[in-house]
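From the shared-data thread, chain only:
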Amino acid sequence: MKFYEDMKLPDLTGFRGEGVEAPRRSLPRPLDMKALASMESAAASLAEDDPGAYVAHLLFSRLGLRNIEILNARAHWISGGSIGIIDRPEEDFFPKGCEGWVPVAPDVLAEVLRFQPLCSDGFLIPGRHKSERHDAVYRRHSKWVGGWIKDRTKTSYELRRYAGSRLLDMGATIFEVRDFLRHRDVQTTQMWYAYRLQNRQLRTIGMLDLLPNREVNVAGPKTKR
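Structure, as C-alpha cells:
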C-alpha cells in the first residue's frame, strides 16, 4: 500500500487551466539631464586621462553600440560614413540581434580616429592588447559613468538606450531607431521607446504644405514666341 492512496487532494482542474502572465516590464527611467550635461563637460578630461574609456564613451553614447561590439570594433569596419556591425567569421565576431550598418556623424568619426596611434592591431579602442581594451570598455568606462548615472545596474548600457531616445527626440521613427540599435524585432524597440512618442505633437498640413518643399513654377509653362 502506497502512503498517498487514502489522501484526498483538492480538485486542481481549474488551476491547471489558468494561463501564466509574463511579468510586465516597467518603463525605463529617464536620465538626469543635469547629470548628463556634467558628464559631457568632464569628457574632455577623460580623453586626456583615459583615451580607451573615452573612445568607448563615444561609441556607447553616439553610436549606441553594445559592449561586445565596442570591444571588437576595428577601423576597417568603417566605410562610407558608417560602421558595419555584421558577421565577421574571420575575426570570430557575430553580432547580437541583427546585422546592420550604423551611420557615424563626421565629427564623431574624426574624434574616434584621432586615437588610432594609441591602438593596436587596427582596433578602435586604445590599448596594447585585449585585456586592456576589455578593462576600458567593461570596467573603467562603467566606473566613470557611474559617477553621474547612479542606481543603475548597467551604467554604460544606459548610454546606448539614451542614444535611441535621443534619435526619437530628433525626429527619427521607431523603425529607424530599430535599425540604428539593430534590434531583431521592432517590438523590442517599441517596448523601450514607444512611450516617448505618445506626447509628440502631430504636425499639421498648412495651405502651402501640400507639396514637398521645393521650387514650384506657379507661373505655368512658358509659351513659345
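The first helix runs from residue 13 to 16.
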